[in-house]
Amino acid sequence: MGIGNELRGDDALGSFIIKELEKEEIINKNNGNIILIDGGSAPENFTGSIKNENPSHIIIIDAALMGSEVGTIKSIKKDEIANVNVSTHSMSISFLIKYLENDIDFKFLFIGIEPLAMNLGENLSEVVLKSVNSLKNTLILSLESLYN
Questions:
Q1: pLDDT of residue 93
Q2: What is the pLDDT of residues 43-59, one digit of tens each?
Q3: How many Å from the N-terminal Cα to the C-terminal Cα in the chain?
Q4: CA–CA separation, 71 vs 128, rounded Å?
Q5: DSSP strand E in 1-148: where?
Q6: Is a pLDDT exceeding 80 seen at residue 30?
């Protein structure tokens, strides 16, 4: 699941990466094993769909203010999410995960990318776009090694 507001610069990175991954052959070839969700700025609207899928793993990608250099990509464990200020969506990721855990058993990974700016009306910054493309390529290579 990618999370973010497409109208707020680097906050859009989660949604952007999902749209990019949807174009990839490895995703389309394994339809059913991999489900991509663009959670936008209201990921809680997709909890019903997630529960219906009963996934074994959930990966969330979002802009995260981690006090790192702009464009830094970090994987953040479930118990560390409360210490990270994540983008502009309405529900906290911690609460979302706890809510889902009431009904399904899954492994969880949060991938955060340090944004440059999340101002209204801006596009993804160049440095964050490079990080997004790097993460996308890493995910694709990982999937190819699993499925080929």
A1: 82
A2: 999 999 999 999 999 99
A3: 23
A4: 5
A5: 2-3, 38-40, 57-65, 73-76, 85-86, 107-113
A6: no
| pTM confidence score | 0.90
Q: What is the pLDDT of residue 24?
A: 87
**Average pLDDT of the residues in 74-91:** 71
Q: Where are the domains of the chain?
A: 2-147
Helices and strands in the chain: count of H runs, count of E runs: 5, 6
Say if CB 62 and CB 112 are below 8 A apart: yes
CATH-assigned architecture of domain 2-147: 3-Layer(aba) Sandwich (3.40)
Residues in the chain: 148
Q: Pairing relation of β-strands 73-76 and 107-113?
A: antiparallel
The answer to whether residues 64 and 76 touch, using CB atoms and an 8 Å cutoff, is: yes
Q: Count CA atoms within 13 Å of residue 135 on its CB side.
A: 29
Average of pLDDT values for 129-146?
Answer: 91
Per the CB < 8 A criterion, the answer to whether 2 and 38 are in contact is yes
